[in-house]
Design brief:
Helix content: 25-40%
Shape: elongated
Number of strands: 6
Structural class: alpha+beta
Oligomer: single chain
Order of helices and strands: HHEEEEEE
Strand order of the largest sheet: 1-2-3-4
Strand content: 15-25%
Radius of gyration: 24 Å
Mean pLDDT: 87
Number of domains: 1
Distance between the termini: 60 Å
Largest sheet: 4 strands, antiparallel
Amino acid sequence: MKKQKGFTLIEILIVVIILAVLAAMILPRFLSQTENAYIAEAQQVLGVLRRAQANSEDIGTGLKAVTDATDATQMNPLGLKPLEQTNFTYTCANDGVCKAVSKRDATKTIELAMNGTYTCTNYAYVDGSATSKGCKPNS
């Protein structure tokens, strides 16, 4: 009798099922990392904007409002370059509160007050309350 080489259909199906289960377990972790990166970007830019505003107040030129962080005429007086290709729209008010609004979902916002506390809308707080620890994706 001649011996055939190869795998049976059952063996191939078992391997495919195992790979599908592994992918189902791993994929959600990778998808949430994208949102974490977006939030980290927003918090970093908000911190830079807030510090630039505080600096302009310290040197006596007062708090400068920013209605469009991509506009050089608004960013240059703060000593910053205009922002390009961001995932959020950034603004700062005269009271020192800087706000990031998601371009993908306008209901998702992050605010950073002059005292360093974050306010997260449609995001969760890192430690359950508005503190300097920031925001994270909703679980």
